[in-house]
Amino acid sequence: MSLPKSYTSSIHGSDMPDDQLADYKTVFPTEVAKFPYDKHKVARVVKNRALFGGQLFFDKLCMENLDRVENIQDTYPPKATSFLRHFFEKILQSNIDRLRQHSFVYYLLRDFHEDRARKYAKKAMMPEHFCRLMDGMWFFDQLLFEQALPCITHPAVHFPYPDLVLSVLLSVPSFNTTSPSPYLALTFVECTQPCLLSDASIAIYFRALLSVSPAQAFLYTRVAQVHLRNQLLKMLVEHCLTVDREKNAMVLLELPMMKEEEVVVEEVLRKATGIMGGLARDTLLERWVNSGRMVEVLDMVRGEGVASEARAAGVNWADLRRGVEMGLGERRGLAAVRGN
Q: How many CB atoms are located within 10 Å of the residue 255 CB?
Protein backbone atom coordinates (compact mmCIF):
# COMPACT_ATOMS: atom_id res chain seq x y z
CA MET A 1 0.00 0.00 0.00
CA SER A 2 1.38 3.37 -0.97
CA LEU A 3 0.89 5.88 1.85
CA PRO A 4 1.32 9.67 1.83
CA LYS A 5 4.60 10.73 3.37
CA SER A 6 2.75 12.61 6.09
CA TYR A 7 1.44 9.29 7.34
CA THR A 8 4.88 7.93 8.11
CA SER A 9 7.37 10.74 8.46
CA SER A 10 6.09 12.26 11.70
CA ILE A 11 4.94 9.18 13.64
CA HIS A 12 7.78 7.38 15.34
CA GLY A 13 6.99 7.63 19.01
CA SER A 14 4.52 5.94 21.33
CA ASP A 15 3.51 6.25 24.93
CA MET A 16 3.77 2.47 25.20
CA PRO A 17 7.35 1.25 25.80
CA ASP A 18 8.94 -0.80 23.01
CA ASP A 19 9.15 -3.93 25.14
CA GLN A 20 5.39 -3.77 25.74
CA LEU A 21 4.62 -3.17 22.08
CA ALA A 22 6.59 -6.29 21.27
CA ASP A 23 5.11 -8.36 24.09
CA TYR A 24 2.48 -10.73 22.74
CA LYS A 25 0.91 -11.25 26.17
CA THR A 26 0.49 -7.51 26.61
CA VAL A 27 -1.06 -6.90 23.23
CA PHE A 28 -3.29 -9.97 22.87
CA PRO A 29 -5.49 -11.68 25.46
CA THR A 30 -4.06 -15.04 26.51
CA GLU A 31 -7.30 -16.66 27.69
CA VAL A 32 -8.26 -19.52 25.38
CA ALA A 33 -11.92 -18.54 25.62
CA LYS A 34 -11.15 -15.13 24.04
CA PHE A 35 -9.32 -16.56 21.04
CA PRO A 36 -11.63 -15.58 18.14
CA TYR A 37 -10.42 -17.94 15.44
CA ASP A 38 -12.66 -20.93 16.04
CA LYS A 39 -13.69 -23.20 13.18
CA HIS A 40 -16.65 -20.97 12.31
CA LYS A 41 -14.51 -17.83 12.08
CA VAL A 42 -11.88 -19.64 10.02
CA ALA A 43 -14.52 -21.02 7.65
CA ARG A 44 -16.04 -17.56 7.23
CA VAL A 45 -12.67 -16.01 6.36
CA VAL A 46 -11.97 -18.77 3.84
CA LYS A 47 -15.41 -18.31 2.27
CA ASN A 48 -15.04 -14.53 2.04
CA ARG A 49 -11.59 -14.93 0.53
CA ALA A 50 -13.10 -17.13 -2.19
CA LEU A 51 -15.85 -14.57 -2.87
CA PHE A 52 -13.15 -11.93 -3.38
CA GLY A 53 -11.42 -14.04 -5.98
CA GLY A 54 -8.93 -15.67 -3.62
CA GLN A 55 -7.57 -12.61 -1.84
CA LEU A 56 -8.94 -10.43 0.95
CA PHE A 57 -8.05 -6.76 1.16
CA PHE A 58 -5.94 -7.65 4.20
CA ASP A 59 -4.19 -10.34 2.15
CA LYS A 60 -3.15 -7.80 -0.49
CA LEU A 61 -1.91 -5.39 2.15
CA CYS A 62 0.14 -8.10 3.86
CA MET A 63 1.73 -9.36 0.67
CA GLU A 64 2.76 -5.83 -0.32
CA ASN A 65 4.26 -4.91 3.05
CA LEU A 66 5.21 -7.92 5.18
CA ASP A 67 8.38 -9.30 3.66
CA ARG A 68 8.67 -11.94 6.39
CA VAL A 69 5.29 -13.49 5.53
CA GLU A 70 5.62 -15.94 2.66
CA ASN A 71 2.05 -17.16 2.30
CA ILE A 72 -0.67 -15.07 3.89
CA GLN A 73 -3.35 -17.70 3.29
CA ASP A 74 -1.41 -20.13 5.47
CA THR A 75 -0.80 -17.41 8.05
CA TYR A 76 -4.21 -15.75 8.33
CA PRO A 77 -6.50 -16.66 9.93
CA PRO A 78 -4.24 -18.23 12.60
CA LYS A 79 -5.46 -21.67 13.65
CA ALA A 80 -4.14 -21.44 17.22
CA THR A 81 -2.52 -18.99 19.63
CA SER A 82 0.92 -20.23 18.62
CA PHE A 83 0.17 -19.32 15.00
CA LEU A 84 -1.07 -15.88 16.04
CA ARG A 85 2.08 -15.30 18.10
CA HIS A 86 4.21 -16.31 15.11
CA PHE A 87 2.28 -13.92 12.84
CA PHE A 88 2.70 -11.12 15.39
CA GLU A 89 6.45 -11.70 15.45
CA LYS A 90 6.63 -11.66 11.65
CA ILE A 91 4.86 -8.29 11.60
CA LEU A 92 7.38 -6.81 14.02
CA GLN A 93 10.31 -8.26 12.07
CA SER A 94 9.13 -6.94 8.69
CA ASN A 95 10.99 -4.07 7.10
CA ILE A 96 8.25 -1.45 7.50
CA ASP A 97 7.90 1.57 9.76
CA ARG A 98 6.34 1.22 13.19
CA LEU A 99 3.08 2.88 12.21
CA ARG A 100 2.43 0.22 9.61
CA GLN A 101 3.32 -2.47 12.09
CA HIS A 102 0.77 -0.98 14.48
CA SER A 103 -1.80 -0.99 11.68
CA PHE A 104 -1.47 -4.71 11.02
CA VAL A 105 -1.71 -5.48 14.72
CA TYR A 106 -4.76 -3.20 14.97
CA TYR A 107 -6.50 -5.20 12.23
CA LEU A 108 -5.86 -8.46 14.10
CA LEU A 109 -7.17 -6.95 17.32
CA ARG A 110 -10.40 -6.05 15.51
CA ASP A 111 -10.97 -9.79 15.24
CA PHE A 112 -10.95 -9.90 19.05
CA HIS A 113 -12.99 -6.81 19.88
CA GLU A 114 -13.24 -3.23 18.67
CA ASP A 115 -12.59 -1.85 22.16
CA ARG A 116 -9.34 -3.76 22.46
CA ALA A 117 -8.21 -2.48 19.05
CA ARG A 118 -9.08 1.08 20.03
CA LYS A 119 -7.19 0.89 23.29
CA TYR A 120 -4.14 -0.42 21.43
CA ALA A 121 -4.40 2.40 18.88
CA LYS A 122 -4.53 4.99 21.64
CA LYS A 123 -1.48 3.57 23.42
CA ALA A 124 0.43 3.29 20.14
CA MET A 125 -0.63 6.82 19.14
CA MET A 126 -2.09 5.72 15.82
CA PRO A 127 -3.61 8.64 13.87
CA GLU A 128 -7.39 8.46 13.57
CA HIS A 129 -7.35 8.32 9.78
CA PHE A 130 -5.14 5.24 9.97
CA CYS A 131 -7.65 3.58 12.28
CA ARG A 132 -10.40 4.46 9.80
CA LEU A 133 -8.38 2.96 6.98
CA MET A 134 -7.91 -0.35 8.79
CA ASP A 135 -11.51 -0.32 10.04
CA GLY A 136 -12.74 0.05 6.47
CA MET A 137 -10.52 -2.81 5.33
CA TRP A 138 -11.69 -5.02 8.19
CA PHE A 139 -15.35 -4.24 7.47
CA PHE A 140 -14.84 -5.07 3.80
CA ASP A 141 -13.27 -8.41 4.61
CA GLN A 142 -16.28 -9.20 6.86
CA LEU A 143 -18.67 -8.31 3.99
CA LEU A 144 -19.97 -5.39 6.06
CA PHE A 145 -19.94 -2.97 3.15
CA GLU A 146 -22.38 -0.43 4.59
CA GLN A 147 -20.12 0.00 7.63
CA ALA A 148 -17.01 0.08 5.45
CA LEU A 149 -18.10 2.97 3.22
CA PRO A 150 -18.10 5.74 5.87
CA CYS A 151 -14.55 4.70 6.78
CA ILE A 152 -13.07 4.53 3.29
CA THR A 153 -14.86 7.62 1.95
CA HIS A 154 -13.70 9.87 4.78
CA PRO A 155 -11.77 12.87 3.34
CA ALA A 156 -8.65 12.06 5.37
CA VAL A 157 -8.50 8.42 4.20
CA HIS A 158 -6.74 7.30 1.05
CA PHE A 159 -8.07 3.79 0.49
CA PRO A 160 -6.09 1.66 -1.96
CA TYR A 161 -7.41 -0.68 -4.64
CA PRO A 162 -10.40 1.33 -5.99
CA ASP A 163 -10.85 -1.11 -8.89
CA LEU A 164 -11.12 -4.00 -6.46
CA VAL A 165 -13.58 -2.06 -4.29
CA LEU A 166 -15.85 -1.51 -7.30
CA SER A 167 -15.58 -5.11 -8.42
CA VAL A 168 -16.42 -6.43 -4.96
CA LEU A 169 -19.36 -4.08 -4.41
CA LEU A 170 -20.89 -5.08 -7.74
CA SER A 171 -20.31 -8.81 -7.49
CA VAL A 172 -20.47 -9.76 -3.81
CA PRO A 173 -23.61 -9.37 -1.65
CA SER A 174 -23.16 -7.61 1.64
CA PHE A 175 -23.55 -9.68 4.80
CA ASN A 176 -27.11 -10.97 5.26
CA THR A 177 -28.22 -9.79 1.81
CA THR A 178 -28.91 -11.80 -1.33
CA SER A 179 -27.60 -9.53 -4.08
CA PRO A 180 -24.93 -6.86 -4.59
CA SER A 181 -25.88 -3.19 -4.40
CA PRO A 182 -24.82 -0.90 -7.26
CA TYR A 183 -25.77 2.07 -5.08
CA LEU A 184 -22.84 1.32 -2.76
CA ALA A 185 -20.45 1.25 -5.72
CA LEU A 186 -21.73 4.58 -7.01
CA THR A 187 -21.51 6.09 -3.54
CA PHE A 188 -17.87 5.05 -3.32
CA VAL A 189 -17.03 6.63 -6.69
CA GLU A 190 -18.97 9.84 -6.03
CA CYS A 191 -17.39 10.35 -2.61
CA THR A 192 -13.78 9.44 -3.43
CA GLN A 193 -13.54 10.34 -7.12
CA PRO A 194 -10.98 7.59 -7.82
CA CYS A 195 -9.02 7.74 -11.04
CA LEU A 196 -10.53 4.96 -13.17
CA LEU A 197 -7.82 4.42 -15.75
CA SER A 198 -8.30 0.86 -16.97
CA ASP A 199 -11.00 -0.11 -19.45
CA ALA A 200 -12.10 -2.85 -17.06
CA SER A 201 -12.67 -0.47 -14.14
CA ILE A 202 -14.65 1.93 -16.35
CA ALA A 203 -16.82 -0.96 -17.56
CA ILE A 204 -17.44 -2.01 -13.96
CA TYR A 205 -18.48 1.52 -13.03
CA PHE A 206 -20.69 1.74 -16.12
CA ARG A 207 -22.51 -1.46 -15.14
CA ALA A 208 -23.28 0.12 -11.77
CA LEU A 209 -24.68 3.20 -13.52
CA LEU A 210 -26.81 1.01 -15.77
CA SER A 211 -28.27 -0.80 -12.79
CA VAL A 212 -29.33 2.48 -11.21
CA SER A 213 -30.18 4.69 -14.20
CA PRO A 214 -29.73 3.85 -17.91
CA ALA A 215 -30.34 7.52 -18.73
CA GLN A 216 -27.47 8.58 -16.46
CA ALA A 217 -25.30 5.86 -17.96
CA PHE A 218 -26.04 7.22 -21.44
CA LEU A 219 -24.82 10.67 -20.43
CA TYR A 220 -21.65 9.10 -19.04
CA THR A 221 -20.84 7.63 -22.48
CA ARG A 222 -20.33 11.20 -23.72
CA VAL A 223 -17.55 11.94 -21.24
CA ALA A 224 -15.91 8.50 -21.34
CA GLN A 225 -12.70 7.89 -23.25
CA VAL A 226 -13.38 8.03 -26.99
CA HIS A 227 -12.24 4.48 -27.72
CA LEU A 228 -14.76 3.13 -25.18
CA ARG A 229 -17.88 5.02 -26.24
CA ASN A 230 -19.17 2.53 -28.81
CA GLN A 231 -18.57 -0.36 -26.41
CA LEU A 232 -20.47 1.45 -23.64
CA LEU A 233 -23.36 2.26 -25.97
CA LYS A 234 -23.56 -1.42 -26.89
CA MET A 235 -23.65 -2.31 -23.19
CA LEU A 236 -26.42 0.25 -22.74
CA VAL A 237 -28.58 -1.27 -25.49
CA GLU A 238 -28.02 -4.83 -24.29
CA HIS A 239 -28.93 -3.82 -20.73
CA CYS A 240 -32.14 -2.09 -21.82
CA LEU A 241 -33.21 -5.14 -23.86
CA THR A 242 -32.50 -7.71 -21.15
CA VAL A 243 -33.10 -6.05 -17.76
CA ASP A 244 -36.57 -4.71 -16.90
CA ARG A 245 -37.10 -4.89 -20.65
CA GLU A 246 -40.35 -3.02 -21.22
CA LYS A 247 -39.42 -0.09 -18.98
CA ASN A 248 -35.83 0.25 -20.16
CA ALA A 249 -36.75 -0.11 -23.84
CA MET A 250 -38.89 3.00 -23.44
CA VAL A 251 -35.98 4.77 -21.73
CA LEU A 252 -33.80 3.83 -24.71
CA LEU A 253 -36.36 5.30 -27.12
CA GLU A 254 -36.44 8.62 -25.29
CA LEU A 255 -32.69 9.21 -25.11
CA PRO A 256 -31.64 12.38 -27.00
CA MET A 257 -29.05 10.81 -29.28
CA MET A 258 -26.75 12.55 -31.70
CA LYS A 259 -26.30 11.18 -35.20
CA GLU A 260 -23.17 9.17 -34.45
CA GLU A 261 -24.81 7.68 -31.36
CA GLU A 262 -27.88 6.69 -33.37
CA VAL A 263 -25.69 4.86 -35.88
CA VAL A 264 -24.08 2.74 -33.15
CA VAL A 265 -27.35 2.02 -31.33
CA GLU A 266 -29.22 1.11 -34.50
CA GLU A 267 -26.45 -1.22 -35.58
CA VAL A 268 -26.70 -3.06 -32.25
CA LEU A 269 -30.50 -3.24 -32.58
CA ARG A 270 -30.26 -4.60 -36.13
CA LYS A 271 -27.89 -7.38 -35.11
CA ALA A 272 -29.69 -8.36 -31.91
CA THR A 273 -30.73 -12.01 -31.72
CA GLY A 274 -32.14 -14.44 -29.18
CA ILE A 275 -34.03 -12.95 -26.28
CA MET A 276 -33.18 -9.43 -27.47
CA GLY A 277 -34.21 -9.95 -31.11
CA GLY A 278 -37.96 -9.29 -31.03
CA LEU A 279 -37.80 -6.32 -28.67
CA ALA A 280 -34.83 -4.90 -30.59
CA ARG A 281 -36.86 -4.93 -33.82
CA ASP A 282 -39.83 -3.30 -32.11
CA THR A 283 -37.56 -0.65 -30.59
CA LEU A 284 -35.84 0.11 -33.87
CA LEU A 285 -39.16 0.32 -35.64
CA GLU A 286 -40.59 2.76 -33.12
CA ARG A 287 -37.46 4.93 -33.33
CA TRP A 288 -37.98 5.22 -37.08
CA VAL A 289 -41.71 5.91 -36.74
CA ASN A 290 -41.08 8.64 -34.18
CA SER A 291 -38.48 10.29 -36.41
CA GLY A 292 -40.59 10.00 -39.58
CA ARG A 293 -38.27 7.54 -41.33
CA MET A 294 -41.12 5.69 -43.02
CA VAL A 295 -39.08 4.20 -45.83
CA GLU A 296 -36.96 2.27 -43.30
CA VAL A 297 -40.16 1.25 -41.52
CA LEU A 298 -41.63 -0.11 -44.74
CA ASP A 299 -38.41 -1.92 -45.63
CA MET A 300 -38.36 -3.57 -42.22
CA VAL A 301 -41.97 -4.76 -42.22
CA ARG A 302 -41.52 -6.18 -45.73
CA GLY A 303 -38.32 -7.92 -44.74
CA GLU A 304 -37.55 -11.58 -45.10
CA GLY A 305 -39.82 -13.80 -43.03
CA VAL A 306 -42.06 -10.95 -41.88
CA ALA A 307 -44.47 -10.74 -44.80
CA SER A 308 -45.83 -14.23 -44.11
CA GLU A 309 -46.26 -13.68 -40.36
CA ALA A 310 -49.64 -12.54 -39.00
CA ARG A 311 -47.87 -11.31 -35.85
CA ALA A 312 -44.19 -11.14 -35.08
CA ALA A 313 -42.38 -9.79 -32.03
CA GLY A 314 -45.66 -8.48 -30.61
CA VAL A 315 -46.47 -6.37 -33.69
CA ASN A 316 -49.08 -7.09 -36.39
CA TRP A 317 -46.65 -6.50 -39.22
CA ALA A 318 -49.13 -6.98 -42.07
CA ASP A 319 -51.48 -4.31 -40.73
CA LEU A 320 -48.56 -2.01 -40.02
CA ARG A 321 -47.18 -2.45 -43.52
CA ARG A 322 -50.52 -1.64 -45.13
CA GLY A 323 -50.93 1.41 -42.90
CA VAL A 324 -47.49 2.76 -43.80
CA GLU A 325 -48.05 2.18 -47.54
CA MET A 326 -51.39 3.97 -47.42
CA GLY A 327 -49.89 6.81 -45.43
CA LEU A 328 -47.04 7.33 -47.84
CA GLY A 329 -49.16 6.97 -50.99
CA GLU A 330 -47.56 8.75 -53.93
CA ARG A 331 -44.99 10.27 -51.63
CA ARG A 332 -43.26 6.93 -51.14
CA GLY A 333 -41.03 7.35 -54.20
CA LEU A 334 -40.03 10.86 -53.16
CA ALA A 335 -39.32 9.65 -49.60
CA ALA A 336 -37.13 6.90 -50.95
CA VAL A 337 -35.14 9.37 -53.02
CA ARG A 338 -34.67 11.63 -50.01
CA GLY A 339 -33.69 8.65 -47.92
CA ASN A 340 -30.90 7.88 -50.39
A: 18
Instruction: For residue 217, give every residue at least 6 positions away whose Cβ sits within 8 Å of its Cβ, in sequence order, or none.
Output: 206, 209, 210, 232, 236, 239
How far is the CA of 339 from the CAs of 36, 164, 172, 334, in angstroms? 74, 49, 50, 9
pLDDT at 226 over 50: yes
- 95 and 67 Cβ atoms separated by less than 8 Å: yes
Per-residue pLDDT for 223 more than 70?
yes
pTM: 0.77
Measuring CA to CA, how many Å separate 26 from each of 32, 54, 215? Answer: 15, 33, 57
Residue 77's nearest CA partner among 62, 99, 65, 92 is 62
Dihedral-angle region of residue 94 (phi above 0 means left; psi in -120 to 50 means alpha; beta otherwise): beta
Span 104-150, pLDDT tens digits = 999 999 999 999 999 999 999 999 999 999 999 999 999 999 999 99
Q: How far apart are CA 175 and CA 144, in angstroms?
A: 6
Tell me: the pLDDT tens digits for 158-184?
888 888 899 999 999 999 898 998 999
Percentage, residues of the chain above pLDDT 90: 59
Count of other CB atoms within 10 angstroms of residue 112: 17
Kindly give the residue spans of alpha helices, DSSP state H, lying in 213-330. 214-221, 229-242, 245-254, 259-271, 277-290, 294-301, 317-328
Nearest CA among 135, 134, 140 for reference residue 49: 140
> 315: phi > 0 → left, psi -120 to 50 → alpha, else beta; which?
beta
Angle ∠(299,309,328) on CA atoms, nearest 5:
35
State how far the Cα of 6 lies from the Cα of 16, in Å rounded to an integer: 22
What pLDDT does 329 receive? 55
Q: Given this model, what pLDDT does residue 9 score?
A: 36
Measuring CA to CA, how many Å separate 316 from each of 45, 187, 279, 282, 286?
57, 45, 14, 11, 13
